[in-house]
Design goal:
The protein is of the alpha+beta class. Among the domains are: 75 residues, no CATH class; 34 residues. The protein has 5 helices and 17 strands. The strands form 8 sheets. The protein has a 3-stranded antiparallel beta sheet, with no helix packed on it. Helix 3 packs antiparallel against helix 4 and helix 4 runs antiparallel to helix 5. The longest helix has 44 residues. The radius of gyration is 57 Å and the shape is elongated. It starts with a helix and ends with a helix.
């Protein structure tokens, strides 16, 4: 009899190992000629603890029910998402329904059995399923969380409080600047100052002589041009002599205008005067 029971156990164990049995008892112990279930397959409920075969000791949960316990006599009804809840995951034989909340609402507990208004940063949820602003001395920098008290001191001993907290933020700390540290910072800042003013000075020293040289070249060219102009006028007077007084006076006026050295002007009256004088002499 014992040999037959062991053969039955061995046969069922081989079947379980290849995955052919997904219902019934998963683990059991021998008690005489019977087997006693220690754990049902996932999604199965216990029918009786001991019996002739492990398969008859557990049965699958009915549709619309589930169980997460390996050894329970009943399955539980699947949760229904109602009201402001929305379905996230459907119920299975091993898991309950997973519900969520509509936009702007948050689950009121871990199971999301109800929905409440979502409290923004700077606010906290209340027992009345509403939101209130963080009381003075507390803050909340996360969505739908309880307000926390401000810190009373900086976490770093080398820091000091610069600003106290508000409904959204904790206190703000900054490093303590001692006289020694401030002096080192000033020296460091001076060492890191840009050197562009030096480039400006060097550029001015280079450009100034160049500018002077250009001005001198232009002045020399203008002087040479004036000399050439005077030379052409002088040659014209000498090369083209004439006995006509009018012509001589006109040439002389032209010479004076080119030179721009006298303020007097030549006109037809001067020519007429010159002509009359010559006639009297004649």
């Amino acid at each position: 009899m014992a040999v037959i029971a062991w053969l039955i156990v061995l046969f069922l164990g081989i079947q379980c190992s290849v995955g052919e049995i997904t219902v019934g008892c998963l683990q059991w112990d021998l008690k005489g000629s019977d087997v006693c279930c220690k754990s049902c397959h996932p999604g199965n409920r216990l029918v009786e603890e001991c019996g002739r075969t492990p398969k008859d000791l557990c049965t699958p949960c009915e549709p619309g029910t589930y169980t997460v316990h390996p050894k329970k006599y009943r399955c539980y009804p699947c949760t229904q998402c109602v009201g402001a809840q929305v379905l996230l995951e459907a119920c299975t034989a091993t898991t309950d329904t997973k519900c969520g909340c509509r936009e702007g609402l948050t689950c009121g507990d871990e199971r999301c059995s109800f929905c409440v208004k979502t409290c923004e940063k700077g606010f906290e949820p209340t027992v009345n399923r509403d939101c209130r602003k963080c009381p003075n001395g507390t803050f909340n920098d996360k969505v739908h969380q309880k307000c926390k008290p401000w810190s009373t001191k900086c976490s770093n001993p080398n820091e000091q409080i610069e600003f106290k907290g508000d409904a959204l933020n904790d206190i703000k700390c900054v490093p303590v600047i001692t006289e020694k540290t401030r002096g080192q910072k000033d020296v460091s800042s001076d060492a890191q100052d840009p050197i562009w003013p030096l480039f400006v000075i060097v550029g001015m020293l280079v450009l100034f002589p160049v500018t002077i040289i250009i001005i001198m070249i232009v002045a020399v060219k203008n002087l040479q041009k004036r000399k050439k102009t005077k030379k052409r006028i002088h040659e014209k007077i000498i090369v083209n002599p004439t006995d006509d007084p009018r012509t001589l006076i006109a040439i002389e006026c032209s010479f004076h205008e080119a030179q721009q050295e006298q303020g007097s002007t030549c006109s037809s009256e001067s020519l007429d005067s010159k002509d009359s004088s010559e006639q009297l002499i004649a």
